[in-house]
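Let's do one together. I've listed all components of the complex below, 892 residues spread over two lines.
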Amino acid sequence: MTLLATKNISIGFPSRHGMFVAVKDVSFSVEPGEILGIVGESGAGKSTVGNAIISLLQPPGKVISGEVWFNSKRIDNLSVEQKRRLRGKKIGMIFQDPQTSLDPLKTIKQQLVETIDLHLRLGRKGSEKRAIELLEQVGIPDPQLRMHHYPHQFSGGMRQRVVIALALCGEPELIIADEPTTALDVSVQKQILDLMRKLCIEKNVGMILVTHDMGVIAEVTDRVAVMYNSKLMEIGDTKQILGNPQHPYTQSLISAIPRPDKRIERFPLVTYIEDVIEPQDEFDLSSHWLGQSRDFSMQVEEDGTILQVKDLCMRFQISNSIFKSKRRYLDAVKMVNFSIKEGETFGIVGESGSGKSTIARMVTGLYQPYSGAVHFLGKEISAINHTPEVLAYRRQMQMVFQDPFSSLNARMRVMDIVAEPILFHKLAASKEEAQHIVLDLLKLVGMADDAYTKYPHQFSGGQRQRISIARALATRPRFLICDEPTSALDVSVQAQILNLLKDLQQELNLTMMFISHDLPVIRQMCDRVAVMQHGQILELAETEQLFSEPQHNYSKHLLSLMPKLDMITERPITVTAQAVQG
Amino acid sequence: MANTNSNSKLRQFFAGDLWYSFVHSPVALISFMITALCLVLAFSAQVIAPFDIFDLAAIDLMDADLPPPWTSDEGDSRFILGTDDQGRDIWSGILYGAQISIFVGFSSVIISAIIGIALGLLAGYKGGRIDSFIMRVADIQLSFPAILIALLIDGVMRGLLPRELHDELAIYVLIFAISISGWVQYARTIRGSVMVEKHKEYVQAGQVIGLPQHIIALRHILPNVLSPIFVIGTIHLASAIITEATLSFLGVGMSPTTPSLGTLIRIGNEYLLSGEWWITLFPGAALVILVLSVNIFGDWLRDALNPKLQ
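Okay, and this is what the predicted structure of the assembly comes out as:
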């Protein structure tokens, strides 16, 4: 018997510009004990579908047509009160951010007991007993003791377990999980997914798992629905969709996933999503502005080393006191050594808090190291003073930031943003020349011709990241630091940006330091990789070697957590190119 | 280029959400229209006022204390809102008085804002000791009521300046006193926003490029923290007008020969008990209308610009 079915639902958000339709004619069904994945990129409407089923649409959004059936009863036309009773009791919900989906002022016990008592009417004693059972089921050790704690006393993964326990309180028949593991580290993500899988089977609960992450889909779902541009593209068995996608969008999406198992030159087919202009002209560095007047007085060392980091340490003060002994410090980076040769891509990988971004900020001079030295082109540059002498070196080193929405000044036009470093470093003789260079740079990163008069908010995340890259290139750097440049982007846009970075590196002979938490991305981009944990480099190896024969236990652990995409076969990736054109 | 640019900006503004919510909010429309009407009336006083209240030759003591003609037979049809104890026309007084009140209000808002923005930016961007120092000064100042500080400054000025000079400079002393007492709000708001903005990546990008601190602070951070200022400004404008009126009412503001709204109310106050209510009532009502409409408009602006309340 079908647990939940939507029939041609469309969801719209009326605004003064007319009705914005976020979901068009979507139909799918969920069986008991089954996990249905809804996958899509940002703006595809996948979360909206989930919210519509339990009537939690952000006002003024509403279902404009179609029906939702739950247990053979139509539920989209129920009264507000009837819908409220359904929520929590029959349909549970797990949200993305475990930080905010629990009440910080109440203990776990208060929250659980309140919810259980509301739905099951077990009384105080009974509810408490049930709460302990639930916490045990979701794998919280020592529940009798832990249930008296407040949410902030749990780690992110534990908190998400509590959220799952909370969703199970009313003994629901259907659970809607909206990006349940996006805010978690990989190691925790796997545990949570396993837990959800286990609960679905044990309790015969149906689940809708909304996510942007194909790895998560491959890991736990039975069937998957692919959404794009508010429409359902394709629905079917996970194995079949991943291994042999039919719709060109799905094919494009799957080909854009960085593969953990082997390195490919470029991501083959990523033009379906965002229109970009691929620069077709042959690029000749010696005649191009970016290659001219490079400061060749600064030479790399004889063995080709461009950057050398020696015994680098960073210490943050976390509590102040007038007494020295009472001050407390956090050692974010401990005695890190590495060197980068000209032309290579050096990767740093690690989970959040491992100190990888701190290293980038010390190398660029945003932070002053606590101790140790950074040598760039043979010169010690770790002090933050901006003397003209150091500035000339700093100019050779630029950075691409993580968040494209905050890395561009919202009040400046794209033209001014990219021209600023050129004018500041006097790299152009006149404003006209600078403008000419900016147009050229924007073309180089694949932006349309009219982009330069616009403001950053008129662009999507991927386009903003391109502008960010253009700005970094404007000082004619030889060394580019990319700090998680794609972690805020959708997978297809990520593929485009990674392609762009690869092309630029080849054309401009750039050296790159590439920081990421995402091992498959690292594999596609880097020549050598440093694995970091707790501020230390645990292993430094050639990329291929690291992936085939990891030496350190932590590296092995990280590699074992990579999502298995075995279901994605070789075939569709090569076939897709024709499939779309045809 | 510049022309087409400002044109498109204008078009953008009219297509934007702010304009839409303005046109569709009766409160905003009415309060804005009343404010605009007050401004137009006040600044065309020289043209539309029936009498020049500064012209001593035109004042006749025989006309003193006349009630409005539409309330009693004693009134004179020339003086539509009656006259004060010296025979000056109340309606003309209100027009000229409002002019002074509005001038003082706007000037002190602008000066407060400039001082506050500069100190807030400095405190927020530099942090450390400079921040602590500026903010402690702000705390100390906040512990005194604004009126008290303005009174203090006015008193000091009276002691320093000779009497004739003081009357002449009274309006500037007032503006100075009100500005000094009002900068703290601006400084605190700006400091808070700057502390948020300076950790954003676009600021770090500027640092990586190698831009000096003053360029980062002025060109990058400042434009991104200015929007709350307009809101504080409109609300502060109302309170500055009231502060001016209060100071003048207390007798330390404008002199009786160049009356502001506050001065007019004070003059009338002495006659209120002897039944001559019109001398104080009409200037008082004018003040209430002006301040209320500016305040309501400022309130609406604050909500319209705050994305959290939309």
